[in-house]
Amino acid sequence: MIRIGAAEATASCLLPPLLVRWAQTHPGVPIRLRVLSSAAICAGLRENELDVGFMHGVDGTAGLLARRWMEEPWLVVARPQHPLAQGVGPISLDMMRHQAQWAWLVTSATAQDAVRQRFESGVGALHIALGLGSVQAVIAIVQSSDLLAFLPRHAVQPALHRNALATLETEGMPLNISLEILRNPEVRLSGPVADFQDFCRAEAAALSSMLDWGALTNPGS
């Protein structure tokens, strides 16, 4: 068994099709996927409770081997009827800071810290109106309110194609955030884990192409 830890957005939206293909090509090697905060992923790797981790950024990864897996585009999204989605032109950083309220994905006290720090480093402090524990909860709230959200393209792509969400043209967006694949170099690398890492690297190109295709076909971008 290969034990994997990943943040909610990655575990619920990006990894499932990859893991289906793994199961089809490696039927004798099961996967256990856990949704964890970045801190819990690092702790699990150090304590040999996880074999592989996926997380955004490398904060807190001292002593672990982190390799960039892909650059993942993140978008600011709103319901199509939102006042800021009515063709008013690029949304300024000042408007995002002072006129927008946000629904934010927070699966634990420390989850999504790297993403929020990266976003706020360019935008400034946000007004977080709601912290929610799943991607689907964030999407549902945004679809039915005037809250904005900042989510990975792979998570919102189905809603964008249904015109249930719209991307906002904003300064500096989309923002590409590095998704890292981690392991503990002090733990002997087993054959199945090595095969899984090779598989992930091979699949990264296909996943990146899928995200690029979404950028071309998304009616809201």
Description:
This protein is α/β, with parallel strands linked by helices. It has two domains: 2-70 and 177-213, Periplasmic binding protein-like II (D-Maltodextrin-Binding Protein, domain 2, 3-Layer(aba) Sandwich); 72-176, D-Maltodextrin-Binding Protein, domain 2 (3-Layer(aba) Sandwich), CATH 3.40.190. It has helices at residues 8-25, 38-46, 93-98, 113-123, 135-143, 153-161, 191-217, and strands at 2-6, 31-35, 52-56, 65-78, 102-105, 128-132, 149-152, 166-167, 175-183. The strands form two sheets. Strands 1, 2, 3, 4, 7, 8 and 9 form a seven-stranded mixed β-sheet that branches. A two-stranded parallel sheet has the order 5-6. Mean pLDDT is 85; it is low at 213-221. InterPro entries: LysR_subst-bd (IPR005119). One of its GO terms (molecular function) is transcription cis-regulatory region binding. It comes from Achromobacter xylosoxidans (strain A8).
Topology, pairings included?
Blueprint: E1 2-6, H1 8-25, E2 31-35, H2 38-46, E3 52-56, E4 65-78, H3 93-98, E5 102-105, H4 113-123, E6 128-132, H5 135-143, E7 149-152, H6 153-161, E8 166-167, E9 175-183, H7 191-217
Helix pairs in contact: 6-7
InterPro entries: LysR_subst-bd (IPR005119)
Domain LysR substrate-binding: 2-204
Pfam families: LysR_substrate
